Amino acid sequence: MHRQLLILSLATVAIMGCAAQVGTKPTENSTTPSVESVKATETPTPTDATPNTVVKSGNFVKGEHITQGNARIITENGKTFLEFDQNFKTDSGPDLLVILHRQQQPKIYGITEKEYVSLGRLQKTSGSQRYDISENIKVADFASAVIWCRTFNATFGYAAFK
């Protein structure tokens, strides 16, 4: 019984001693950092990053199908992309590709292989999206972005770059 009382007394002293330390500042020789000594580090915000540079842009117009929204070619951190804004919309169709065309107003039917370069399949028929433009593609050689149906060789819509 005396042993249990002794353990209980020691535990009480330890708990009370720890409780008394709460809210006090450590002494100069203390190795425990105080809350005041912890400094917040600044993390760069997206506005600190290198801004996108718009190279070319244009609004989509109807070809074989109503197509709307904006297309722009941008550079970001040394890479080039074609972007469609959130207002982009076109109809669905078989085998739709996103291409860069050499002319501002491509033919509605009958585009030939030497007139364009493909950036890949259309990701979705509405909303913002982004396509990588390979380093070996000379953007200056192309005058429009086109939604093109390869199966029927039909231009759904195009955005002439300004």
Word description of this protein:
- This protein is mainly beta and 162 residues long.
- The chain contains one helix and eight strands.
- The protein has one helix spanning 2-21, and strands at residues 53-62, 70-76, 79-84, 96-101, 116-121, 129-133, 144-149, 154-160.
- An eight-stranded antiparallel beta sheet has the order 5-4-7-8-1-2-3-6, with no helix packed on it.
- The N and C termini lie far apart (93 Å).
- Mean pLDDT is 80; it is low at 10-48.
The amount of beta strand, in percent, is: 25-35%
What is the rounded distance between the termini?
93 Å
Radius of gyration: 32 Å
Q: Calculate the mean pLDDT score and round it.
A: 80
Coarse morphology: globular
H-E order: HEEEEEEEE
Give a count of the beta strands, DSSP E runs of length 2 or more.
8
Strand order of the largest sheet: 5-4-7-8-1-2-3-6
Alpha plus pi helix count: 1
Helix fraction bin: 10-25%
Helical/strand content category: mainly beta
Low-pLDDT residue spans: 10-48
**Main pleated-sheet profile:** 8 strands, antiparallel
